[in-house]
Design a protein that fits this description.
Blueprint lengths: L1 E6 L2 H5 L5 H8 L4 E6 L12 E3 L7 E3 L1 H11 L5 E11 L2 H10 L3 E5 L7 H7 L2 E4 L8 H13 L33 E2 L2 E2 L2 H4 L3 H19 L6
Parallel strand pairs: 1-2, 1-6, 5-6, 5-7
Antiparallel strand pairs: 3-4, 8-9
Helix pairs in contact: 3-5, 4-6
The structure holds adenine.
Adenine (ADE) binds next to strand 5 and helix 6.
Length: 224
């Protein structure tokens, strides 16, 4: 899968994708992540990428010309162009799965300052995505998070193929059950007996009940 990222901060976008599982996936060519410096498409002596808001208001916006030039150069007929912005629809695992399965060429546009000129959105963007209801200084971190979530689902990225099946949000209405490892007792705190019983049906039932309880406590909004 090929993912192009257009940003003023290519290093920020790439750093989280340069360790561990995602680093290996990239080395094995399961995913190719190509960060681009937006300024390379800016013209003029100062290669300016931002401007004041028309009609007044605080802050700066990314200008349309460099973004149009960058997207038109990198875009192919099958590409999906995604803008990372707090104004977007909030990313969920179902969409991550859809994007991973589509194996489509993605172009991620990272907003900065107050965002991008709206003509970029109406003319070039297929999808506006937010990674959550909070505001980051720029979209490069959000792009890295989206890449991480997608790439780990690509075939061969995780060593154990099942490890992405059995986790929170595989069932979008339920979090994962609590998990334990050795030692069986630590500072007087015991691993629940059922997990050491070897009784698979009982373990499955326990996990289901625990997952429900955890979801009720932490994310009641997920329950039907
Ligand atoms: N840029 C700034 N904040 C963001 C967010 N929450 N999601 C995506 N991009 C962003």
């Amino acid at each position: 899968m090929v993912i192009d990222i257009i940003t003023l901060f290519p290093e920020i976008a790439l750093a989280p994708l340069s360790e561990s599982i995602i680093k290996r996936a990239r080395e094995n060519d399961i995913a190719r992540v190509q960060p681009h410096q937006l300024r390379d498409w800016a013209t003029g002596k100062h290669r300016k990428t931002d401007e004041y808001l028309c009609g007044g208001g605080q802050g700066m916006l990314l200008k349309p010309e460099p973004l149009f030039a960058a997207i038109e150069e990198l875009r192919r007929p099958e590409s999906k162009v995604i803008l990372l912005t707090p104004q977007g629809t909030v990313l969920k695992q179902a969409l991550v799965r859809e994007l991973a399965d589509s194996n489509q060429h993605l172009i991620l546009i990272c907003g900065h300052y107050e965002g991008v000129d709206h003509r970029v959105i109406t003319e070039l963007i297929d999808l506006e995505l937010s990674i959550g209801d909070y505001v980051l200084t720029n979209g490069a971190l959000a792009a890295a998070i989206l890449c991480d979530a997608i790439i780990r689902l690509l075939p061969g990225a995780l060593g154990d193929e099942r490890s992405s099946e059995d986790e929170s949000f595989s069932d979008p209405q339920l979090l994962e059950a609590p998990a334990y490892t050795k030692p069986n007792e630590f500072r007087g705190l015991k691993v629940p007996d059922v997990l050491l019983s070897g009784h698979h049906a009982k373990i499955t039932a326990w996990k289901k009940e625990q997952a429900l309880q955890r979801t009720r406590e932490n994310r009641p909004d997920l329950l039907p």
